[in-house]
Amino acid sequence: MHKRSTRLMGSLIGNNIGHFLAGLLGTVMAVIIEFITPILLAETLDYYLQGKPSRMPGFINAWVDGWGGPAFMKQNLWIVGLALVGLNIISGLFSFMKSRALSVAGENVALTLRERLYNHIQHLPFAYHVKAETGDLVQRCTSDVETVRRFLSMQLMQVVNALMMIAFALVYLFRENARITWISMIMIPGLFAFAYLFFKWVIKNFRLSDEAEGKMSAVLQENLTGVRVVRAFGQQEYEVEKFEEVNADYRKKTFKLCNLLAVYWATSDMMSMTQSMITLLACVYFAVRGDITVGTMIIFTSYIWKLLFPIRQLGRILSDAGKSSVALERIDEILREKEEPEEPNALRPSLKGDIVFDHVTFGYEENRDVLRDMSFVIPAGKTVAILGATGSGKSSMVHLIQRLFEVRQGEIRIGGIPISQIDRQYLRSRVGLVLQEPFLYSKTLRENVAIAHRDASEEEIDRAVTDAAAKEFILDSDKGYDTLVGERGVTLSGGQKQRVAIARTLMKENDILIFDDSLSAVDTETDAAIRSALKKHSRNTTTIIISHRIVTLSQADLILVVEDGRVTEQGTHQQLIHSGGLYSKIFNIQTALEEEFKEENTGYATV
Amino acid sequence: MQQFEERDYTQRFSWSLWKKILRYAKEYHKDLFKLIVVMGVTAGCDVLFPLMTSYAIDHFIPTETHAAETGNLPLFIVIYVALLAIQVAAIFYFLYLGGKVEVGACYTIRKQAFRKLQELPFSYYDRMPVGYLMSRMTSDTQRLSETIGWSLLDLAWGAVMIVAASVAMFLNNVRLTLMVLLVVPPLALISWWFQQRILKSYRAVRKTNSKITGAFNEGIMGAKTTKTLVLEDKNMEEFTVLTRDMKKSSVRAASLSAMYLPIVVSLGSLATAWALWKGGQQVGLPGGMTLGVFQLFVNYTMQFFEPIRNIANVFAEMQSAQAAAERVLTLLETEPDIVDTPEVEAVFGNSFSPKKENWPAIRGDVEFCHVDFQYKEGEKVLTDFNLHVRAGETVALVGPTGAGKSTVVNLVCRFYEPTAGEIKIDGVNYKERSQLWLQSSLGYVLQEPRLFSGTIRDNIRYARLDASDEEIENAARMVNAESFILKMEKGYDTDVGEGGSRLSTGEKQLISFARAILADPRIFVLDEATSSVDTQTEQMIQHAIQKVLSGRTSFIIAHRLSTIRTADRILVIDDGKIKEMGTHQELLRKKGAYYNLYTNQFQEDMAMEILGKAE
Question: Is A346 within the bounds of a domain?
Answer without folding.
Answer: no
